[in-house]
Amino acid sequence: MHKKKNKQDLSDHTSTYSMRYSAEEVPKYEMPDKSMPSNAAYQLVHDELNLDGNPSLNLASFVTTWMEPEADKLIAENINKNFIDHDEYPQIEMIHERVVNMLARLFNSPEDQTSVGTTTIGSSEAIMLGLLAHKWSWKNRMKAEGKDDSKPNIVYGADVHVCWEKFAKYFDVEMRSIPMEEDRWIINPELVEELIDENTICVGAILGTTFTGQTDPIKEINDLLVKVKKDKGWDIPIHVDGASGGFIAPFVYPDLEWDFRLEQVKSINVSGHKYGLVYPGSGWLVFRDEKDIPEDIVFKVNYLGGEMPTYTLNFSRGSSMVVAQYYNFLRLGKEGYTKIMTNVVNNAKYLAEKMMDTGLFENLNPTQLLPVVAVKLKDKQDFTLYELTDKLRERGWIIPAYTLPPNAEKVIIMRVVVKENFSRDMADMLLSDIDVAIEKLKKAAPKGTASKKKGVC
Ligand SMILES: Cc1ncc(COP(=O)(O)O)c(C=O)c1O
Questions:
Q1: Ligand 1 pocket, 152 CB below 6 A?
Q2: Which end of the chain is more exposed for a tag (fewer CB within 10 A), N or C?
Q3: pTM confidence score
Q4: For ligand 1, is residue 248 a contact (CB within 6 Å)?
Q5: pLDDT value for 309
Q6: Alpha-carbon torsion angle 357, 362, 366, 371, nearest 10
Q7: Beta carbon of 243 within 6 Å of any ligand 1 atom
Q8: pLDDT at 85 over 60
């Protein structure tokens, strides 16, 4: 015999999609007055997010979209720890220190100097902190010499990521940007030499530009600055933006000199969340020596327990990505990173070669040092790269088409960032989809119209 259940019991078993929330408008711009059951809220948010692209097919971003299940577990286990609470979570700080040590050595920090560093939210924060330190070092130097310290400038190419321009704007430093040309998308020492003077706080050099994946000639720029120091007494530091290349070069090109082996390289940033192989929210900044950060910009706070020095833009932040970075270092070691980065570079080379075989594209990153396939259309075609990338999106591939920075704005390119999870098999599928998409676009285009419409190059 069973007893008849009352209404309350029945509502406990209401299925998710039979609740009124799935038939009502979802609050979007004002916090709802009433609560809703957790399963309804979860499902509403979860279902809406299904409209996002598939991260595994996101070839637009450098940012990691896959980690091992053990890493996912560590991330979940540490998600509730505020990184800044060093007194409360001393082991997190210990792990942070170990990662900074490992990175400094990976970047060939001289053994007789005391490198220092910090985690950041990403390379943007790391770059801004690095450049701020150089601004204050320059200011202190000028003051000590009794010189005007009101007109700092910074020299870099238009091939930099937007965060460099943000730094110049936000922190009031004159931006001396070296323009690109239609057939030059990186900088060179001659162009740097024209712009530097005694008010130059720093020269920026990129190990893998966001636009084409090419690398600025860092060693040659260093040689120029060493000579300038000798001839004119201007000690101008280089900050290397190794956002993506910082985890490729040490493993695939160990003999390439781009890091602290070069005398004027005083600070380096790298994105843990790019080829460091952890999820978004991880950047690193390493200084060659502790004297490269002026003491007066390191703050000491004591409101969380013991006295703690901080050099960050943000105070609170998650701990999980610091833990995840350490997991990767232990798990992969140099052996694992070398194998993964070699695969990634080889798969990028393969994709680029096959695309060149079609005869339609020109490779803008021919050295393929970094696993970025950047191409433009060779001649006028019956389709544009914007149309091609739109067509590929129908199959789920997320690939951007965009123009290069000034003065190369007329060059329209398409960029594929090859990441760890982009296997040879995926490269073959993408190549086949590119063929199909081009055929469809050619068939759909009235002869010659697409190229005339958008002026393809
Ligand atoms: C060369 C370079 N520098 C800096 C950044 C900014 O990095 P983040 O997104 O980690 O702030 C990027 C991002 O793609 C980049 O490619």
A1: no
A2: N
A3: 0.93
A4: no
A5: 76
A6: -80
A7: yes
A8: yes
